[in-house]
Amino acid sequence: MLLNEVLVNIRCGLDLVEISRIESAISKGSDRFLERIFTASELDESRHRTQSLAGYYAAKEAVAKALGTGLLVKGIRFTDIEILKDQLGAPMVKLSAAAKARYDELGGKSLAVSITHEKAYAAAVCYMVCDSLRQIDDR
């Protein structure tokens, strides 16, 4: 099979964050930081635990990288990418506004995210399956 015959395009995003950076931002910015970055559902799910919030932050960054934009580019806000949990506690992604528009523009078919924590760090990876027939300028 020739490479140009592949019918799907797999995009990937990865992010690593120091948990202490999130802790510091929360203590400096208080509710303002939390409301700008996290949805009410994320704050409820995390119970405001810094380690969980750092994981959600890393996941949002990873999703934005898979979208090919990063955050705060093309109008994508942190709260346009929501990290929730499924029935088994695994992370799942809900996109809205500009993030959903970008996903649709890329011909998004599915999106998966995984989050891990280790003492001082939280990391996340996102895989997105898209329609490869769409030619999108990522610049």
What layout of secondary structure does this protein have?
Elements: E1 8-18, H1 19-37, H2 40-46, H3 50-66, E2 81-85, E3 91-95, H4 97-105, E4 108-118, E5 121-131
Antiparallel strand pairs: 1-5, 2-3, 4-5
Helix pairs in contact: 1-3
Question: In a few lines, what is going on in this structure?
Answer:
The protein has 139 residues and is of the alpha+beta class.
Task: Please explain how this structure is put together.
With 139 residues, this protein is of the alpha+beta class. It has one domain: Alpha-Beta Complex (Ribosomal Protein L22, Chain A). It is built from 4 helices and 5 strands, in the order βαααββαββ. The strands form 2 sheets. The chain has a 3-stranded antiparallel sheet. The protein has a two-stranded antiparallel ribbon with strand order 2-3. The longest helix is centred in the first third of the chain and has 19 residues.
- Provide the domain count: 1
CATH architecture: Alpha-Beta Complex
Shape: globular
Low-confidence segments, given as residue ranges, are none
Overall strand count: 5
Question: Which fold name corresponds to the CATH topology?
Answer: Ribosomal Protein L22, Chain A
- Straight-line N-to-C gap: 29 Å
Strand order of the largest sheet: 1-5-4
Helix-strand pattern: EHHHEEHEE
Structural class label:
alpha+beta
Main beta sheet, described? 3 strands, antiparallel
Treating each run of at least 4 consecutive H or I residues as one helix, how many helices? 4
Radius of gyration in whole Å, from Cα? 16 Å
Helix percentage: 25-40%
CATH level-4 homologous superfamily: 4'-phosphopantetheinyl transferase domain
CATH class: Alpha Beta
Beta fraction: 25-35%
Average residue pLDDT: 90
